[in-house]
Design brief:
There is one protein chain. Helix content is 36%, strand content 22%. It is of the alpha/beta class. An eight-stranded mixed sheet has the order 6-7-8-3-9-10-12-11, with helices on both faces. A four-stranded antiparallel sheet has the order 2-1-4-5, covered by helices on one side. Helix 2 (80-89) crosses helix 4 (108-120) and helix 4 runs parallel beside helix 7 (160-174). Bound molecules: adenosine-5'-diphosphate and magnesium ion (MG). Magnesium ion binds next to helix 1.
Length: 326
C-alpha cells in the first residue's frame, strides 16, 4: 500500500468571476521512503494539490471530489483531531515563502517551542530547556550560524535564506514520514539555492523521509528525487523515473517542457510552448492540453485521457499511448 495516494482529486475556487475549476482529477502516488518531484508551469495546480494534502486550502476552495489516502485512510474524511495528529507528527511542508510561514510578532525560538509542543501532543516531553536543546541542535544541523542568536531573534531580523533554514529545521523536527517542499528555493538568492537543496537532500537521506519536491531547478530535482510527475492545468499528465523522463519525455506537454528546460531559469516555462495555461473558468473539454497540442485527434477534445502504461514503469495521460497498448 502506498504511503499516500491521491485519487481523482478535483478542487475549484470560488471567485468574483465565477467558479475556477482548477484540479480536474489529480492522481498521485508515493511509496514509503520514495521521493517524487512535480514539475509544470506556474498556475498548473501544484500548490493547490499540496495544500489539499495538508488540508490547508484557502477558505474559497471547494473540494469537488476525490480521495487522499494516507495508509489507506481518506484524509478528507478524517475529523480535524484525527488529521491534526498526522499533520503535526507525520507530515511537514516547506513553503516557497519562508516569511509567511513564520509569525512576525513572536521570537523564532518561542514559535518553534510552541509548534514542537503541539506536535508532541500529550505524549512528548514539554520541558522548555529540553525542547530548546533539540531546536538548537536542529539549527546546527541546517548550518545556521550562531543558533543561540537565531533562537532569540524575530523573523525580520533574519535573512530570507536563514528564515528558510529555520523552516527546514522545524520541518525536520516534526516530520516523521513525509516532507513536502513547495518551491523551497524560488524566493531565495540564486547563490544559496543550491546550498538549501543540498541541505534538504542530506537531511531527508539521513531521516529516510518520503519527499514531494516541487521545483523549477531541474538539475536539483534530478539529484534529489527518483520519480517525476509532470502536471498540466490541474492534472498529472505523466509520471516516469526521473532520468527516463529527462531522456525520453512522452506526453507532448512533457516533451515541450523538457525542451524548454534551459529557459526555465526565469521562473516561467511557457516560452518554449505556444499558448497558455487555460482559464479555469471555462477550461477546455477533454484533454486540457489539446488546444496547445500538435498531436491532437478528435477523441482528445471529448474525454480526458486516464493514465496509460508507457513502458519502464512510466504512465502517460495521452491517447497516443493508448495505441501503444493496443
Ligand atoms: N485562493 C485562490 N482563489 C482563487 N484562485 C486561486 C487561489 N489559489 C490559487 N488559485 C488559482 O489556481 C490555479 C493554480 O494555482 P496553484 O495551485 O498555485 O498553481 P502552481 O502552484 O502550479 O503555480 C491558478 O490559476 C491560481 O490563480
Ligand atoms: Mg505553487
Amino acid at each position: 500500500m502506498p504511503l499516500l495516494e491521491v485519487r481523482n482529486l478535483r478542487v475549484s475556487y470560488k471567485t468574483y468571476r465565477g467558479v475556477l475549476k482548477v484540479l480536474s482529477g489529480v492522481n498521485l502516488e508515493i511509496e514509503r521512503g520514495e521521493r517524487v518531484g512535480i514539475i509544470g508551469e506556474s498556475g498548473c495546480g501544484k500548490t493547490t494539490t499540496m495544500r489539499a494534502i495538508m488540508r490547508i486550502l484557502p477558505s474559497n476552495a471547494i473540494i469537488e471530489g476525490g480521495e487522499i489516502l494516507y495508509d489507506g485512510k481518506d484524509i478528507l474524511k478524517m475529523s480535524e483531531n484525527e488529521f491534526n495528529s498526522i499533520r503535526r507528527r507525520k507530515f511537514a511542508m516547506i513553503f516557497q515563502d519562508p516569511t509567511a510561514a513564520l509569525n512576525p510578532v513572536f521570537k523564532v525560538g518561542d514559535q518553534l517551542i510552541d509548534v514542537l509542543r503541539q506536535s508532541r501532543g500529550d505524549s512528548g516531553k514539554h520541558d522548555r530547556d529540553a525542547l530548546k536543546d533539540e531546536i538548537i541542535a536542529a539549527f546546527k544541523e541546517v548550518m545556521l550560524p550562531d543558533p543561540e542568536r537565531v533562537f532569540e531573534s524575530y523573523p525580520f531580523q533574519l535573512s530570507g535564506g536563514m528564515r528558510q533554514r529555520v523552516c527546514i529545521a522545524l520541518a525536520l523536527l516534526t516530520a516523521e514520514e513525509l516532507l513536502i517542499a513547495d518551491e523551497p528555493t524560488t524566493n531565495l538568492d540564486v547563490t544559496i539555492q543550491d546550498q538549501i537543496l543540498r541541505l534538504i537532500k542530506e537531511l531527508v537521506d539521513r531521516r529516510d523521509l518520503s519527499v514531494i519536491l516541487i521545483s523549477h531547478a531541474l538539475g536539483a530535482v534530478r539529484g534529489l528525487v527518483e520519480r517525476l510527475y509532470v502536471m498540466y492545468a490541474g492534472t498529472m499528465v505523466e509520471t516516469s523515473e526521473v532520468n527516463e523522463l529527462f531522456r525520453n519525455p512522452r506526453h507532448p506537454y512533457s516533451r515541450a517542457l523538457i525542451a524548454s528546460a534551459p529557459r526555465l531559469t526565469g521562473g516561467g516555462v511557457s516560452q518554449g510552448i505556444r499558448g497558455n495555461v487555460p482559464d479555469y473558468l471555462n477550461p477546455p473539454k477533454g484533454c486540457r492540453f489539446h488546444p496547445r497540442c500538435d498531436f491532437k485527434t478528435l477523441v482528445c477534445e471529448l474525454d480526458p485521457p486516464g493514465f496509460f502504461p508507457a513502458g519502464g514503469g512510466g504512465k502517460v495521460a495521452c491517447y497516443l499511448y493508448a495505441e501503444v497498448v493496443r
